[in-house]
Amino acid sequence: MWRMLDWKCGALYDSVLYLCDSGFSDNDDQQWSGIMKLLQFVDPQDGRHVGLVVGEEVLDLTQVGAGPRSVHEVYYGLGGNEKGFTTVVGELEAAAGGARRLNLQELLENRDGGKPCLDKPVSGPDERPHALRIWLAGVTHEDSAKLREIEAKQSTGDAVNVYDMKYRECAKGGRPELFSKNEPGAVVAHGQPVTRPVDTERLVPETELISVYGLNAAGQVERLGYTGGNDVTDNGIEATNPLNLPQAKNWADGCASIGPLLVTADEYDDGVVTVSCEVLRDGERVAFKEGETGQERLNMPDRLFHMERILFRRMPLLAGQLQVLYWGTPIVFGEADFPIGLLVGDVMRLSFSGGIGTLENPIVELPEVDQLRELE
Questions:
Q1: For residue range 338-361, what is the model confidence (pLDDT) as tens digits?
Q2: pTM
Q3: Do residues 213 and 180 lie in contact, with contact meaning Cβ atoms separated by under 8 Å?
Q4: If you ran DSSP here, which 8-state letter would residue 317 be given?
Q5: What pLDDT is recorded for position 167?
Q6: Is the dihedral of CA 268, 271, 274, 279 positive or negative?
Q7: Strand order in the sheet with 347-352
Q8: φ, ψ of residue 135 in degrees (nearest 5)
Q9: What is the DSSP letter of 120?
Q10: Given this structure, which CATH class describes domain 133-365?
Q11: Helices (DSSP H) in 182-341: which residue ranges?
């Protein structure tokens, strides 16, 4: 059932958020086979397709009707922003009698570009990649705030209380930490590499739930679904000085990842979400943690809506845009348990309950470039 929340801090523009109630509470992913899950994949023959997960198979919705090639097109091109996102997906499924079916596990495991492989579960059109806006939150979970405070003090030798201050400020209804990774190549899909710059100090994964939004025909922001995210961060740079945050979060050709599956908002229980993060090096586990995120674990009044209110008040969503919001991580790898951080060749595996699945990405080196000789 859809319900509309009150705009508690004043409407600065003509848009409010429609939120979704769902009845799931058990975090055993065995039961999530029947809920509505979508993905995007790339076919080497003709590019991006959008698919609906049906059991262990993926129904190719691009072979149905007008042939939508993305979640963006389903929502904005086929009337999902008018009739409802899940309504349009249901219509496509009903008309998909002769559409091909792919094996879900093969899509998840394939790394061969000559075969269909997973893409990001949401994206902007190829000609307008910035139609997908990417924003992230930090210091939203207590463990994260405490550990970042400790690391900053160890790195500088000084008492740095900016993280504790931000955590307490947000808990009282203040402004959350929000930042962007909006370059088209910043965020990569399941199976694609995340890069490690040569000047990295200590790179770590950050396991984060993501909510996905669109703007419906009435000018209202809707939660369309949920997926998983990895906000890869150079904690060494950030710990040295919090003002290094933009550099600790952003670099070329893959500084975050998203996926693997998008679970529609009407079917996902975002109250408490169990997550875990594993790092493999030469096939051996070198780091592992698990924790809980979700609405009930956020440290602010109105939970997720507080971040949404702050974000969309200053950055209204425009027609034709999709938005993803990373929620911040409950899992932080400190120097004590992961001293040298991620290295080239490592593989990160981040798991999310509720049907989203496991997001996996290897680490590769970001090549150095020779572009500055004429400036010296």
A1: 999 999 999 999 999 999 999 999
A2: 0.89
A3: no
A4: P
A5: 78
A6: positive
A7: 194-196, 357-365, 347-352, 273-281, 284-293
A8: -125, 155
A9: -
A10: alpha beta
A11: 235-240, 245-249, 304-314
Question: For residue 27, what pLDDT is reported?
Answer: 43
**CB 326, CB 210: distance < 8 Å:** yes
Cross-strand partners of 347:
280, 362
Residue given tokens 């809707």 in the structure block: 222
Beta bridge partners of 361: 348
> Which amino acid, one-letter code, is at 326?
Y
Q: State pLDDT tens for residues 264-307.
A: 999 999 999 999 999 999 999 999 999 999 999 998 999 999 99
The domains of the chain are located at 35-118, 133-365
Cβ burial 215-252 (10 Å sphere, 16+ → b, else e): bbeeebbbbbbbbbbbbbbbbbbbbbebeebeebbbbe
Q: Do the Cβ atoms of 216 and 175 come closer than 8 Å?
A: no
Give the number of other Cβ atoms within 10 Å of residue 33's Cβ. 12
Q: Which residues pair with 125 in a beta bridge?
A: none
DSSP per-residue string spanning 26-73? ---GGGGGGS-EEEEEEETTTEEEEEEEETTEEEEGGGSTT---SHHI
CB atoms within 10 A of CB 146: 15
Token pair, residue 153, equals 């003090």
